[in-house]
Amino acid sequence: MTEPIVDAAPAIDFDLKNLPKVSLHDHLDGGLRPATIIELAEAVGHTLPSTDPVALGEWFRESANSGSLVRYLETFDHTVAVMQTHEGLFRVAKEFVEDLADDGVVYGEVRWAPEQHLQKGLSLDEAVEAVQEGLEAGVEAVGEGGREIQVGQLITAMRHADRGQEIAELAVRHRNKGAVGFDIAGAEDGFLPSRFRDAFTYLAQHNFPATVHAGEAAGLESIQSALVDGRALRLGHGVRIAEDIMVEFEDDAEDTVGLVTLGDLSSWIRDRGIALEICPSSNLQTGAIAGFGEGIESHPLDMLYQLGFNVTINTDNRLMSGVTLTDEFDLLVETFDYDLDDLLELTLNAAEASFLPLEEKEALVEYINDAYANLG
Ligand SMILES: [Zn+2]
Q1: Is residue 9 part of a domain?
Q2: In the chain, how many domains are there?
Q3: Is 3 an active-site residue?
Q4: One of 216, 243, 345, 359 is an active-site residue; which one?
Q5: Residue limits of the Adenosine deaminase domain (predicted)?
Q6: Which one of 17, 215, 296, 344 has the largest count of C-beta atoms within 10 Å of its C-beta?
Q7: Per-residue confidence at 7, pLDDT binned at 50, 70, 90?
Q8: What are the tens digits of pLDDT across the range 37-69?
Q9: What residues pack around ion ligand 1 (CB closer than 5 A)?
Q10: How far, CA to CA in Å, does 285 sit from each of 109, 230, 235, 302?
């Protein structure tokens, strides 16, 4: 007897790319076009592993996939090297916005660490201004092409360095000139957010919002510190909060979930609706989810989503991971059978967790709801 033919119609039979998307976790120095890197490198005399765009793109993806942290970090040496001048930052920021819009993103928060872009004499403020000019030029170019996109900067401090206070002040100084939030990034393990306690206090006193990378390369202690010391309104990744959730299976049957118990920390994050900026492909590549199993199907994002956590979907580093937000959506549809309602919910989660003012947030939510409703 042959197996009954399962309905082979795909659950999603429309173009994922055209769905309006919100991108909250996307690094400026992780989203360059290979051809641009080559041109900018030539202009500043920087040597690259390859000067062929296709081969260079492959080199980035292979290095990120190699399992070697050294090789992974080396990729950023090259992107950061070509982003040291006004011209370099402007161009990268402009193209970043155009690429987001091509991917269906209608609102994006772009994060980057100005302190890494001072090697050729730019000041922190000049660097932020160069990026802002590039972002605005990108928004204009997208508008000329008949689409709309809105973007904001997340000003990031590097957690292994010691410039948190300075960067927090920089972010606040640019709050009405493109900066919408603050973040700390870089080596998480061994560098708790508590190191930047004073900077986060300064931000809180100035009512300036922070998202904090936590629960990626380190676990619950890092997440706790992000919330307590960082007053994080969102968590960059935050995926290892799943370590604070106990799932007991009935009769050893792993497909029937029995009792789920949340610890105090995971309860707080779920019940308060603290958004998790989940980056599925990146989490797999960096080993952030290695403790939960081998493949993408072991990613706890589905469990977190089903349990009512405020899950948002992001790309992290589009160049290194070789992905777009459309690809990440596609991955979720393939892996977890997500349908249109799921993608809408994940997108609305991101819109509502954005650092936009309320009126603009409501307009964004309405735009997304309308676009989905019009899909028929
Ligand atoms: Zn990140």
Answers
A1: no
A2: 1
A3: no
A4: 216
A5: 20-370
A6: 215
A7: very low
A8: 999 999 999 999 999 999 999 999 999 988 777
A9: 316
A10: 22, 26, 19, 18
Q: Is the pTM higher than 0.90? A: yes
- What's the half-sphere exposure (Cβ side, CA atoms, 13 Å) at 53? 8
For 104, the domain range is 18-373
The candidate with the shortest Cα–Cα distance to 115, out of 169, 66, 39, 35, is 169
Task: Tell me if 160 is assigned to some domain.
Answer: yes
Of 252, 257, 251, give the one whose Cα is nearest residue 300: 257
- The per-residue pLDDT for range 111-164, each reduced to its tens digit, is 999 999 999 999 999 999 999 999 999 999 999 999 999 999 999 999 999 999
Question: Is residue 282 pLDDT above 70, yes or no?
Answer: yes
In angstroms, how far is CA 230 from the centroid of its own chain? 18
Is residue 166 situated within a structural domain?
Answer: yes
186 CA → ligand 1 middle, Å: 8
Q: Helix 340-353 vs helix 325-336: angle between axes, to the nearest 10 degrees? A: 130
Picking from 41, 188, 26, 216, the residue whose alpha carbon sits closest to that of residue 112 is: 26
Could you tell me which residues are beta bridge partners of residue 110?
26, 153
The answer to whether position 7 is within a domain reads no
Q: How far is the CA of 51 from the centre of ligand 1 (A)?
A: 27
3-class secondary structure, 102 = helix
- pLDDT at residue 88, as a whole number: 98
